[in-house]
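To: structure subgroup
Subject: Chain for Friday's discussion

All,

I'm putting the inputs and outputs inline so they're searchable in the archive.
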Amino acid sequence: MAGISRTFISLESATSSRAGHGSYPCQGIYYSGGRPAPKVAFIATHYEVDFAEHYLAEYMAERGFGFLGWNTRFRGNGAYFLLEHALVDIGAGVKWLREEAKIDVVVLLGNSGGASLMSAYQSQAVEPNISPARNLPLPDAVLALPQADVFISLNAHPGRPEVLTAWMDPSVVAEDDPVNTDAKLDMFNANNGPPYERDFVKAYRQAQLARNERITRWARNELDGLQSMGVWDRLFNVFRTWADLRFLDLALDPSDRSPGCYMGDAKRANYGPFGIGSTCTLRTWLSMWSLAESQCRAAPHLARVTVPSIVIQSTADQGCFPSDARMICDALGASDKHLEMISGDHYLTDDADRVAVADLIADWLRERVS
Protein backbone atom coordinates (compact mmCIF):
# COMPACT_ATOMS: atom_id res chain seq x y z
CA MET A 1 0.00 0.00 0.00
CA ALA A 2 1.28 3.46 -0.87
CA GLY A 3 2.72 5.56 1.92
CA ILE A 4 3.32 2.68 4.34
CA SER A 5 6.85 2.40 5.70
CA ARG A 6 8.33 -0.98 6.65
CA THR A 7 11.22 -1.07 9.11
CA PHE A 8 13.06 -4.29 9.87
CA ILE A 9 13.62 -4.74 13.62
CA SER A 10 15.99 -7.29 15.14
CA LEU A 11 16.80 -7.55 18.82
CA GLU A 12 18.57 -9.68 21.35
CA SER A 13 16.46 -11.29 24.04
CA ALA A 14 17.16 -11.33 27.75
CA THR A 15 17.60 -15.09 27.44
CA SER A 16 19.13 -15.40 23.97
CA SER A 17 21.88 -13.45 22.23
CA ARG A 18 22.83 -13.01 18.60
CA ALA A 19 23.65 -16.27 16.84
CA GLY A 20 27.12 -16.94 15.51
CA HIS A 21 25.89 -16.84 11.91
CA GLY A 22 24.50 -13.33 12.52
CA SER A 23 20.76 -13.47 13.17
CA TYR A 24 19.09 -12.09 16.27
CA PRO A 25 16.55 -14.22 18.15
CA CYS A 26 13.76 -11.61 17.91
CA GLN A 27 12.92 -10.26 14.48
CA GLY A 28 10.03 -8.51 12.79
CA ILE A 29 8.82 -5.63 10.68
CA TYR A 30 7.32 -2.40 11.98
CA TYR A 31 4.67 -0.79 9.78
CA SER A 32 3.68 2.85 10.00
CA GLY A 33 1.67 5.21 7.86
CA GLY A 34 4.04 8.14 8.38
CA ARG A 35 3.27 11.46 10.11
CA PRO A 36 2.11 12.05 12.69
CA ALA A 37 3.84 9.06 14.21
CA PRO A 38 1.29 6.63 15.67
CA LYS A 39 0.73 6.50 19.41
CA VAL A 40 -1.25 3.26 19.24
CA ALA A 41 0.39 0.13 17.85
CA PHE A 42 -0.28 -3.57 17.50
CA ILE A 43 2.09 -6.44 18.16
CA ALA A 44 1.22 -9.79 16.57
CA THR A 45 3.14 -12.97 17.36
CA HIS A 46 2.58 -16.71 16.91
CA TYR A 47 4.09 -19.78 18.52
CA GLU A 48 6.03 -20.69 15.39
CA VAL A 49 4.48 -19.07 12.30
CA ASP A 50 6.34 -16.05 10.89
CA PHE A 51 4.11 -13.02 11.52
CA ALA A 52 6.57 -10.37 10.27
CA GLU A 53 4.41 -9.75 7.19
CA HIS A 54 1.04 -10.33 8.81
CA TYR A 55 -1.87 -9.76 6.45
CA LEU A 56 -3.39 -7.00 8.62
CA ALA A 57 -0.20 -5.00 9.08
CA GLU A 58 -0.55 -2.59 6.16
CA TYR A 59 -4.31 -2.28 6.61
CA MET A 60 -3.87 -1.08 10.19
CA ALA A 61 -0.95 1.18 9.28
CA GLU A 62 -3.12 2.74 6.57
CA ARG A 63 -5.63 3.59 9.31
CA GLY A 64 -3.03 5.43 11.39
CA PHE A 65 -1.80 2.68 13.71
CA GLY A 66 1.63 1.19 14.14
CA PHE A 67 1.96 -2.56 13.61
CA LEU A 68 4.85 -4.76 14.72
CA GLY A 69 4.72 -8.16 13.05
CA TRP A 70 6.91 -9.93 15.58
CA ASN A 71 8.71 -13.26 15.73
CA THR A 72 10.32 -15.01 18.67
CA ARG A 73 13.32 -17.32 18.44
CA PHE A 74 10.85 -20.13 17.67
CA ARG A 75 9.70 -18.82 14.26
CA GLY A 76 9.70 -21.83 11.97
CA ASN A 77 11.15 -23.84 14.83
CA GLY A 78 8.19 -24.85 16.96
CA ALA A 79 9.65 -28.31 17.59
CA TYR A 80 11.79 -26.70 20.31
CA PHE A 81 9.25 -24.27 21.74
CA LEU A 82 9.39 -23.34 25.44
CA LEU A 83 6.75 -20.92 26.69
CA GLU A 84 8.83 -18.93 29.15
CA HIS A 85 11.40 -17.96 26.51
CA ALA A 86 8.74 -17.05 23.96
CA LEU A 87 7.19 -14.66 26.49
CA VAL A 88 10.56 -13.05 27.14
CA ASP A 89 10.97 -12.51 23.38
CA ILE A 90 7.51 -10.96 23.08
CA GLY A 91 8.46 -8.68 25.95
CA ALA A 92 11.42 -7.44 23.92
CA GLY A 93 8.99 -6.38 21.18
CA VAL A 94 6.62 -4.64 23.59
CA LYS A 95 9.56 -2.83 25.17
CA TRP A 96 10.75 -1.69 21.74
CA LEU A 97 7.31 -0.27 20.98
CA ARG A 98 7.27 1.65 24.26
CA GLU A 99 10.85 2.92 24.25
CA GLU A 100 11.87 3.22 20.60
CA ALA A 101 8.62 3.74 18.71
CA LYS A 102 7.25 5.90 21.58
CA ILE A 103 3.93 4.09 21.60
CA ASP A 104 1.45 4.99 24.34
CA VAL A 105 -1.09 2.18 23.77
CA VAL A 106 0.10 -1.34 22.95
CA VAL A 107 -2.47 -3.70 21.46
CA LEU A 108 -1.87 -7.45 21.66
CA LEU A 109 -3.23 -9.02 18.47
CA GLY A 110 -3.77 -12.71 19.09
CA ASN A 111 -4.44 -14.22 15.68
CA SER A 112 -5.06 -17.97 15.32
CA GLY A 113 -2.66 -19.76 17.69
CA GLY A 114 -1.30 -16.37 18.71
CA ALA A 115 -4.35 -15.64 20.88
CA SER A 116 -3.48 -18.13 23.60
CA LEU A 117 0.18 -17.07 23.40
CA MET A 118 -0.67 -13.37 23.73
CA SER A 119 -3.10 -14.06 26.57
CA ALA A 120 -0.32 -15.98 28.33
CA TYR A 121 1.94 -12.95 27.81
CA GLN A 122 -0.50 -10.47 29.34
CA SER A 123 -1.36 -12.90 32.14
CA GLN A 124 2.30 -13.29 33.07
CA ALA A 125 2.91 -9.54 32.81
CA VAL A 126 0.00 -8.78 35.12
CA GLU A 127 0.57 -11.57 37.63
CA PRO A 128 3.58 -13.89 37.18
CA ASN A 129 2.17 -17.40 37.27
CA ILE A 130 3.92 -19.75 34.86
CA SER A 131 6.30 -22.55 35.79
CA PRO A 132 9.47 -23.40 33.87
CA ALA A 133 9.91 -26.35 31.57
CA ARG A 134 10.91 -29.52 33.38
CA ASN A 135 14.27 -29.40 35.14
CA LEU A 136 14.96 -25.85 33.98
CA PRO A 137 15.08 -22.61 35.98
CA LEU A 138 12.56 -19.87 35.38
CA PRO A 139 14.41 -16.89 33.81
CA ASP A 140 14.25 -13.66 35.79
CA ALA A 141 13.20 -11.72 32.69
CA VAL A 142 9.85 -13.53 32.49
CA LEU A 143 8.98 -12.15 35.93
CA ALA A 144 9.13 -8.52 34.77
CA LEU A 145 7.31 -8.28 31.45
CA PRO A 146 5.83 -4.92 30.35
CA GLN A 147 2.04 -5.02 30.22
CA ALA A 148 -0.06 -4.19 27.17
CA ASP A 149 -3.20 -2.05 27.12
CA VAL A 150 -5.66 -3.79 24.79
CA PHE A 151 -6.28 -7.43 23.75
CA ILE A 152 -7.72 -8.68 20.46
CA SER A 153 -8.49 -12.30 19.57
CA LEU A 154 -8.90 -12.92 15.85
CA ASN A 155 -9.93 -16.29 14.37
CA ALA A 156 -8.44 -18.12 17.31
CA HIS A 157 -8.69 -21.39 19.17
CA PRO A 158 -8.68 -21.79 22.96
CA GLY A 159 -5.13 -23.10 23.27
CA ARG A 160 -2.46 -25.28 21.71
CA PRO A 161 -3.31 -28.44 23.68
CA GLU A 162 -7.01 -27.97 22.95
CA VAL A 163 -6.66 -27.48 19.20
CA LEU A 164 -4.24 -30.37 18.77
CA THR A 165 -6.47 -32.69 20.75
CA ALA A 166 -9.59 -31.59 18.84
CA TRP A 167 -7.78 -32.30 15.55
CA MET A 168 -5.97 -35.44 16.72
CA ASP A 169 -6.91 -38.77 15.12
CA PRO A 170 -7.89 -41.17 17.94
CA SER A 171 -7.97 -44.16 15.57
CA VAL A 172 -4.15 -44.28 15.59
CA VAL A 173 -3.31 -47.72 16.97
CA ALA A 174 0.39 -47.12 17.74
CA GLU A 175 2.32 -43.85 17.87
CA ASP A 176 5.20 -45.29 15.84
CA ASP A 177 2.89 -46.42 13.01
CA PRO A 178 1.35 -43.63 10.89
CA VAL A 179 -1.03 -45.95 9.02
CA ASN A 180 -2.50 -48.61 11.34
CA THR A 181 -6.10 -47.65 12.18
CA ASP A 182 -8.88 -48.70 14.53
CA ALA A 183 -11.88 -48.75 12.17
CA LYS A 184 -14.36 -48.18 15.00
CA LEU A 185 -12.81 -44.75 15.67
CA ASP A 186 -12.01 -43.77 12.09
CA MET A 187 -13.85 -40.61 11.03
CA PHE A 188 -12.99 -41.39 7.40
CA ASN A 189 -14.69 -44.80 7.59
CA ALA A 190 -18.02 -44.31 5.80
CA ASN A 191 -19.67 -46.70 8.26
CA ASN A 192 -19.13 -44.07 10.97
CA GLY A 193 -20.34 -41.03 9.01
CA PRO A 194 -20.64 -38.18 8.31
CA PRO A 195 -23.03 -37.30 9.74
CA TYR A 196 -21.69 -38.68 13.00
CA GLU A 197 -24.04 -40.08 15.60
CA ARG A 198 -23.95 -38.63 19.11
CA ASP A 199 -22.49 -41.80 20.65
CA PHE A 200 -19.71 -41.90 18.06
CA VAL A 201 -18.88 -38.25 18.70
CA LYS A 202 -18.70 -38.87 22.44
CA ALA A 203 -16.48 -41.94 22.08
CA TYR A 204 -14.29 -40.14 19.53
CA ARG A 205 -13.74 -37.11 21.75
CA GLN A 206 -12.94 -39.31 24.76
CA ALA A 207 -10.44 -41.27 22.67
CA GLN A 208 -8.79 -38.02 21.56
CA LEU A 209 -8.32 -37.00 25.19
CA ALA A 210 -6.93 -40.44 25.96
CA ARG A 211 -4.39 -40.19 23.11
CA ASN A 212 -3.11 -36.86 24.40
CA GLU A 213 -2.83 -38.32 27.89
CA ARG A 214 -0.94 -41.41 26.61
CA ILE A 215 1.62 -39.29 24.80
CA THR A 216 2.05 -37.15 27.91
CA ARG A 217 2.68 -40.20 30.13
CA TRP A 218 5.16 -41.56 27.61
CA ALA A 219 6.95 -38.19 27.32
CA ARG A 220 7.33 -37.90 31.10
CA ASN A 221 8.69 -41.43 31.42
CA GLU A 222 10.95 -41.06 28.40
CA LEU A 223 12.37 -37.80 29.72
CA ASP A 224 13.06 -39.34 33.11
CA GLY A 225 14.74 -42.32 31.47
CA LEU A 226 16.90 -40.20 29.23
CA GLN A 227 17.98 -37.98 32.11
CA SER A 228 19.04 -41.03 34.12
CA MET A 229 21.44 -41.75 31.25
CA GLY A 230 22.64 -38.15 30.99
CA VAL A 231 20.67 -37.40 27.82
CA TRP A 232 19.00 -33.99 27.70
CA ASP A 233 15.99 -34.50 25.41
CA ARG A 234 14.89 -36.08 22.13
CA LEU A 235 12.67 -35.47 19.14
CA PHE A 236 9.63 -37.56 18.25
CA ASN A 237 6.74 -37.48 15.79
CA VAL A 238 2.99 -37.19 16.30
CA PHE A 239 1.14 -38.56 13.29
CA ARG A 240 -2.32 -37.77 11.89
CA THR A 241 -3.50 -34.47 13.33
CA TRP A 242 -6.10 -33.38 10.76
CA ALA A 243 -9.04 -35.35 12.12
CA ASP A 244 -11.54 -33.03 13.77
CA LEU A 245 -15.05 -34.37 13.15
CA ARG A 246 -16.11 -30.80 12.38
CA PHE A 247 -14.01 -30.88 9.23
CA LEU A 248 -16.58 -33.19 7.59
CA ASP A 249 -19.76 -32.85 9.64
CA LEU A 250 -20.93 -29.25 9.25
CA ALA A 251 -23.79 -29.80 11.69
CA LEU A 252 -21.25 -30.00 14.51
CA ASP A 253 -20.50 -26.43 15.63
CA PRO A 254 -22.50 -24.98 12.70
CA SER A 255 -21.01 -22.13 10.67
CA ASP A 256 -20.69 -21.01 7.05
CA ARG A 257 -17.60 -23.15 6.45
CA SER A 258 -17.22 -25.71 3.66
CA PRO A 259 -16.08 -29.31 4.28
CA GLY A 260 -12.34 -29.84 4.70
CA CYS A 261 -9.48 -28.34 6.65
CA TYR A 262 -6.82 -25.68 6.10
CA MET A 263 -4.86 -28.18 3.95
CA GLY A 264 -7.87 -28.98 1.77
CA ASP A 265 -9.05 -32.58 1.79
CA ALA A 266 -8.95 -33.66 5.43
CA LYS A 267 -8.18 -37.35 4.85
CA ARG A 268 -5.30 -36.59 2.50
CA ALA A 269 -3.93 -34.02 4.95
CA ASN A 270 -4.33 -36.40 7.88
CA TYR A 271 -2.12 -39.03 6.27
CA GLY A 272 0.37 -36.50 4.93
CA PRO A 273 3.61 -35.20 6.47
CA PHE A 274 2.40 -31.73 7.48
CA GLY A 275 0.51 -31.12 10.69
CA ILE A 276 0.52 -29.23 13.96
CA GLY A 277 2.69 -30.78 16.64
CA SER A 278 4.03 -33.28 14.12
CA THR A 279 7.61 -33.01 15.42
CA CYS A 280 8.62 -31.90 18.90
CA THR A 281 10.94 -32.61 21.77
CA LEU A 282 9.70 -34.18 24.98
CA ARG A 283 9.93 -30.86 26.81
CA THR A 284 8.15 -29.04 23.97
CA TRP A 285 5.30 -31.56 24.08
CA LEU A 286 4.89 -30.91 27.79
CA SER A 287 5.28 -27.14 27.38
CA MET A 288 2.97 -26.65 24.39
CA TRP A 289 0.78 -29.66 23.57
CA SER A 290 0.03 -31.65 26.71
CA LEU A 291 -3.45 -31.17 28.16
CA ALA A 292 -2.13 -32.13 31.59
CA GLU A 293 0.99 -29.95 31.70
CA SER A 294 0.97 -27.24 29.05
CA GLN A 295 0.55 -23.64 30.13
CA CYS A 296 -0.51 -22.74 26.58
CA ARG A 297 -4.16 -23.31 27.45
CA ALA A 298 -5.83 -19.94 27.10
CA ALA A 299 -8.59 -20.03 29.72
CA PRO A 300 -6.50 -19.53 32.90
CA HIS A 301 -4.59 -16.70 31.23
CA LEU A 302 -7.66 -15.05 29.74
CA ALA A 303 -9.10 -14.72 33.24
CA ARG A 304 -6.21 -12.34 34.04
CA VAL A 305 -6.73 -10.27 30.89
CA THR A 306 -8.73 -7.33 32.20
CA VAL A 307 -7.85 -4.71 29.56
CA PRO A 308 -10.45 -3.80 26.90
CA SER A 309 -10.85 -6.85 24.68
CA ILE A 310 -12.61 -7.91 21.50
CA VAL A 311 -13.01 -11.43 20.10
CA ILE A 312 -13.50 -11.59 16.32
CA GLN A 313 -14.38 -14.80 14.50
CA SER A 314 -14.87 -15.49 10.80
CA THR A 315 -17.94 -17.59 10.09
CA ALA A 316 -16.32 -19.60 7.24
CA ASP A 317 -13.22 -20.56 9.24
CA GLN A 318 -12.51 -24.29 8.77
CA GLY A 319 -10.41 -24.78 11.90
CA CYS A 320 -11.51 -22.22 14.51
CA PHE A 321 -15.19 -22.41 15.27
CA PRO A 322 -17.99 -20.32 16.82
CA SER A 323 -17.76 -22.31 20.06
CA ASP A 324 -14.05 -21.39 20.30
CA ALA A 325 -14.84 -17.70 20.00
CA ARG A 326 -17.57 -17.91 22.63
CA MET A 327 -15.27 -19.77 25.00
CA ILE A 328 -12.52 -17.16 24.59
CA CYS A 329 -14.92 -14.29 25.17
CA ASP A 330 -16.51 -15.96 28.20
CA ALA A 331 -13.08 -16.68 29.73
CA LEU A 332 -11.80 -13.10 29.42
CA GLY A 333 -11.56 -11.26 32.72
CA ALA A 334 -12.24 -7.89 31.09
CA SER A 335 -15.39 -6.00 31.95
CA ASP A 336 -15.15 -4.29 28.55
CA LYS A 337 -15.28 -7.23 26.15
CA HIS A 338 -17.14 -7.90 22.93
CA LEU A 339 -17.71 -10.81 20.55
CA GLU A 340 -18.10 -10.09 16.84
CA MET A 341 -18.83 -12.64 14.09
CA ILE A 342 -17.68 -11.59 10.62
CA SER A 343 -17.66 -13.02 7.10
CA GLY A 344 -14.58 -14.65 5.64
CA ASP A 345 -12.26 -17.61 6.03
CA HIS A 346 -9.46 -18.16 8.53
CA TYR A 347 -6.96 -15.90 6.76
CA LEU A 348 -9.53 -13.41 5.42
CA THR A 349 -8.13 -14.05 1.96
CA ASP A 350 -10.77 -11.89 0.27
CA ASP A 351 -9.56 -8.29 0.33
CA ALA A 352 -13.05 -7.05 1.18
CA ASP A 353 -13.01 -9.15 4.35
CA ARG A 354 -9.63 -7.73 5.36
CA VAL A 355 -10.88 -4.20 4.79
CA ALA A 356 -13.98 -4.93 6.85
CA VAL A 357 -12.09 -6.39 9.81
CA ALA A 358 -9.52 -3.56 9.72
CA ASP A 359 -12.36 -1.03 9.85
CA LEU A 360 -14.06 -2.96 12.65
CA ILE A 361 -10.89 -3.02 14.76
CA ALA A 362 -10.05 0.63 14.02
CA ASP A 363 -13.54 1.85 14.97
CA TRP A 364 -13.62 -0.27 18.12
CA LEU A 365 -10.18 0.97 19.17
CA ARG A 366 -10.92 4.63 18.55
CA GLU A 367 -13.89 4.42 20.90
CA ARG A 368 -11.51 3.36 23.67
CA VAL A 369 -8.17 5.09 23.05
CA SER A 370 -7.23 8.46 21.68
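Points worth raising on Friday:
The chain has ten helices and ten strands.
Residues 299 and 331 are 6 Å apart (CA to CA).

D.
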